[in-house]
Every structure is written in structure tokens, then in C-alpha cells.
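Here comes my example:
=====
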Amino acid sequence: MEIILKQDIKSLGEKDDIVSVKPGYGRNYLIPQGFAQLATPSAKKVLAENLKQAAFKQDKIKKDAEGIAERLTEVKLSIGAKAGETGKIFGAVNTIMIADALKQQGFDVDRRRITFETEPKFVGEYVANLNLHKEVKVKVPFEVVAE
């Protein structure tokens, strides 16, 4: 019996895979639980169309991310923070501050997509990693200056 999986099942396959299972397993467990649907010719056509549309959307998102990454290579940020005489900053420079600085320069990047190579604890230069897409990553240098 061929079925189309609606979600990932550890021992069987991933979402949208067409797999063969024993009829009782498919009819009595997978289909009633909503884990799968019967792989009829019409369901296969619908699945193929959905996969094609999803691939098109992912390609568009990736191209947009690559465009932003290309423009971000020229950006250098300056973040102000209160610091002591030794250069140690009070508080922390966090991803929200980086996202706000990027927004001021015209880039709308979600703060959850920003990480640091080393945590900024002193005045100086650092690098922020921006994960714009699972395949598109860019490094943005920034400087922490004393206010």
C-alpha cells in the first residue's frame, strides 16, 4: 500500500515522502491518526504541484537573502555603550542593539538570526553573524564605542 506522509515519522520517512507500508499499518494506524493519506493518482498530482510551488517560494526567499547579504558586506556598524576606564562595558551589547543599528541603515533583520563570534564585553571591534537563510550567512563587523 502506498501512502503520502503528512509529517516526519522516524522509522518511515519525512513529510511529503511517498512510502510503501503494509496495508494494516497504513489503514489502521497512519491514516486514522492523520500521519498519512492514501497515495492515489490525484493525491500524487497535488503533492507534485505543492512541492513545485514550495520550491519556487524557497528559491525566491533565498534570492532575496542573497541580495541583502551582498549589500551587507559594505556595512560597518558603531554601537554606543557605557564603559568604565578600563574599557569594560556596563551591561551588554546584544542582538537587539545590532538589529536596531541595521534597521537605521535600512536593513530589516530579525534579532533571532544574529549571533556573535565572541561576546562583546569590552570596547573594540567585533563580528556579528547574520543567518539570513539556511544557505545564506554573512558576517557584519561592528565597533563598540564608549559613550
About this structure: The chain is about 35% helix and 25% strand. The CA atoms of residues 116 and 128 lie 5 Å apart.
